[in-house]
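User: Hi! I have a protein structure encoded as tokens and I'd like to know what sequence might fold into it. I'm fairly new to this, so please keep things simple.
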């Protein structure tokens, strides 16, 4: 009996010791979990029940100006939706694939092969879904399946102003044109929202915005809706009528430097940029600012302006000129190889006399001519607010020979962009002051502040008296010279034709290819618009007076009517 009691006492002691040890172990374990590993488990719980969601900022819209109405959105956003799946969070991949298949139009087996894994991220299963489709997915209430909004850039006018606008890629980054130049201002900054969710991954409530999103700025253009439309129509018809390779037109407000229209043919639809890119990336480049050419005779009035400004000639200065002149062993001739004989400087421009212009260049000399060309903006960027602007080519005068100067005076041996050339003519219209061109009129930030783009004078190039004299000479070119078809009844138009040869990569120039152009401004007595028309390789006419000049005249007539500018002459 006593022995049994001793055995029972020993067992009780063992049990007591075991319980005490277990209690100590459990206490240590609980202490370790509740105290030492507390933060770790809190973080794990937070990851399960708290989510941080990136909130996409709204990209700012681009608005084209309306002369007789409110600005019109020409680049804006449409909200679509996309289906995201986190495979690691799925309860049943096969069941999920079966439920999603009929809604998003992908076979069950294909979906299953994509989501049957433990990845944290896979690309969206479906993009560009409309809200009704997204709502069907959302009603499934499946863990690991999410619907997120997707902002897609949309261009309501399709290809209109395509080169001006550029496009936004799938990453939300602007490419080319305004979309690229103003990308930072347009895209804004993303926000972060902290939300709680239940065990099935469904959002319960928003806790806070950890970072507030900031939507992008809206941008209003100087470009006028109807002017852009008409410019594209006119230049497209000119290219078609003359069987040309392509064409460009720029209309500039001489008072502000604002670009009212910039049209190129061919163009592209930014909504379908990915399809266009398969053919050629070159289509995205804006020829009006990125492609330089040897301008030909539209350079002559600017050289003449330099000589006038230096007092080397007057509009009535006369000279006798042959059909050709030899410079450093090279023969330079008039376009028709006929001598114009005795001419005033005004008649030199009317006749577009290459030989006489060589004489004007001799009077100026290399350094003086170079200084005026640089002052007019050639050989440097105009700093316009568009991506992809080219500088053109104007070599340093120290590298010039006499022959270099003698070809530059009639637009060979240097290259310019259409924007540079129209801005140089606008300087004449602005009484000799070069103004910075710009496309944007106003930037409206998300905080309500507004930045207005004002006229910016770059430098004075010609004296006011010089610009006035040159304007009268350019009027005479339209009234009596090769620019007659650029004229508009009832108005004074100032301008000059250019028929430029196209360089042959093998040397020299093509005999059967030309670029026709006309640059000028109007009404010449109170300038409002500067404009350039450039038509590449017209097939049915050799001279710009039959291609670019009438195109200029047609657009000028429409502009004067559209802006209700009253005629001020009788004939």
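Assistant: Happy to help. Inverse folding works backwards from shape to sequence: for each of the 571 positions I chose a residue that suits the local structure. Here it is:
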């Amino acid at each position: 009996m006593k022995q049994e009691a001793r055995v029972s006492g020993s067992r009780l002691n063992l049990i007591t010791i075991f319980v005490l040890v277990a209690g100590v172990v459990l206490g240590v374990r609980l202490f370790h979990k509740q105290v030492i590993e507390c933060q770790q488990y809190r973080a794990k719980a937070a990851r399960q029940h708290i989510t941080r969601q990136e909130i996409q900022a709204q990209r700012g819209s681009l608005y084209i100006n309306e002369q007789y109405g409110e600005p019109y959105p020409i680049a804006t956003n449409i909200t679509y939706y996309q289906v995201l799946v986190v495979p690691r969070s799925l309860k049943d991949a096969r069941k999920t694939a079966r439920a999603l298949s009929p809604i998003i139009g992908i076979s069950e087996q294909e979906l299953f092969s994509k989501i049957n894994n433990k990845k944290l991220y896979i690309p969206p299963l479906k993009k560009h879904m409309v809200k009704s489709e997204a709502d069907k997915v959302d009603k499934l209430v499946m863990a690991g399946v999410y619907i997120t909004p997707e902002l897609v850039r949309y261009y309501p006018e399709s290809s209109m102003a395509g080169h001006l606008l550029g496009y936004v890629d799938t990453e939300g980054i602007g490419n080319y044109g305004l979309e690229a130049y103003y990308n930072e201002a347009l895209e804004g900054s993303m926000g972060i929202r902290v939300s709680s969710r239940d065990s099935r991954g469904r959002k319960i409530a928003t806790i806070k915005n950890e970072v507030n999103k900031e939507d992008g700025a809206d941008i209003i253009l100087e470009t006028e809706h109807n002017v852009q439309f008409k410019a594209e129509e006119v230049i497209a018809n000119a290219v078609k009528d003359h069987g040309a390779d392509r064409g460009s037109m720029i209309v500039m407000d001489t008072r502000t430097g604002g670009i009212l229209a910039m049209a190129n043919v061919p163009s592209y639809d930014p909504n379908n940029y990915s399809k266009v890119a398969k053919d050629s990336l070159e289509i995205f480049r804006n020829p009006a600012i990125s492609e330089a050419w040897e301008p030909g005779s539209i350079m002559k009035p600017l050289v003449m302006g330099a000589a006038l400004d230096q007092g080397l000639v007057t509009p009535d200065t006369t000279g006798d000129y042959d059909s050709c002149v030899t410079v450093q062993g090279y023969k330079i001739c008039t376009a028709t190889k006929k001598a114009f004989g005795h001419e005033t400087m005004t008649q030199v421009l009317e006749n577009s006399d290459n030989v006489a212009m060589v004489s004007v260049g001799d009077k100026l000399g290399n350094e003086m001519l170079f200084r005026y060309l640089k002052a007019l903006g050639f050989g440097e960027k105009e700093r316009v607010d568009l991506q992809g602007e080219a500088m053109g080519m104007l070599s340093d005068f120290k590298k010039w020979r006499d022959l270099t100067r003698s070809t530059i005076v009639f637009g060979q041996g240097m290259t310019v962009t259409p924007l540079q050339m129209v801005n140089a003519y606008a300087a004449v219209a602005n009484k000799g002051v070069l103004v910075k061109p710009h496309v944007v009129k106003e930037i409206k930030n998300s905080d309500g502040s507004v930045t207005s783009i004002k006229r910016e004078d770059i430098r004075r190039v010609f004296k006011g008296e010089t610009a006035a004299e040159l304007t009268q000479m350019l009027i005479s070119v339209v009234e009596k010279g090769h620019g007659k078809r650029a004229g508009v009844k009832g108005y004074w138009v100032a301008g000059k034709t250019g028929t430029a040869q196209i360089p042959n990569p093998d040397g020299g120039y093509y005999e059967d290819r030309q670029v026709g152009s006309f640059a000028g401004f109007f009404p010449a007595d109170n300038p409002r618009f500067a404009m350039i028309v450039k038509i590449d390789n017209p097939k049915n006419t050799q001279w710009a007076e039959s291609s670019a000049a009438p195109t200029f005249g047609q657009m000028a007539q429409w502009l004067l009517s559209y802006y209700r500018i009253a005629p001020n002459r009788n004939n």
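A useful reference point when you look it over: The chain has 19 helices and 23 strands. Feel free to ask if any position seems puzzling.
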